[in-house]
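Write out structure tokens for 3-alpha-hydroxysteroid dehydrogenase.
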Amino acid sequence: MSQALIPSYAGKKVVVSGGGGRGMGAAAVAALLENGAEVWVLDVQEPQHEGTQFLQVDLKDPKAIENAIEQVGAGIDALFNCVGVAGNRTSDLDTFLINFAGVRHLTNTALKYINDDGAIATIASNAGEKWRNNLREYEELIAQDSFDGAIEWFNANEHLREPGVATAAYRVSKQAIAAWGVLSSAQRGEDGKRRIRQNTVMPGFTETPMGAEFRNVLSDAYFDSYPTPLGRYLDPSEPAKALLFLNSDLASGVNGVTLTVDGGATAALEATARV
């Protein structure tokens, strides 16, 4: 990724949750390092790229999150929430806690360490595109600003998860992340005093280790019917580019956006539904 395209990361301090392994977070880490950032990675897996500061953190553990952010310290320019699990190797509740409650707690904990005019970008999924259909329930979730509140909400809203569908908790967690990102974005600037922006990227199917996990969970019929207007699935660097754009000075006026990055799959599904 050209330095000229992302001019604002040189010398900036950034935090990437989920920056270990070989997924979208790792792609974001590589691009940030290339563009001169001081990169702190928070993950259960070590980062693949040299030159980062690494803190091993389980996002199901609120205290571990708080301790890690304290170690990162003040002066954060941008937070990249890239952590996530598919749900095939975790319980429904753990999937929700990692993908939503942990990400939210990390963000809220980091806020006091983020500089004025800072930015937050979070990976959701195009599986969460229909969050507006259940907005009342997600507003109730966002109002319960704690791990215990998130657990209580999850247990009380089982109707949002399709029985027997392996990815149901994943979809709910990603709808929750999208709703939270939009509804929280207006509050981040503290009535304009700190001007902290928050945006969300909604990737489609991507060739990552998590993508391979979805192949093991979802049916062949699903992938046979999944539209690929570009003639291929995404490379992890493509959602990562969107994250870097949203958290850069190039997007200084962008706030409260859910940006779909799926090669046109969602658009194709919507077009088909209208026929």
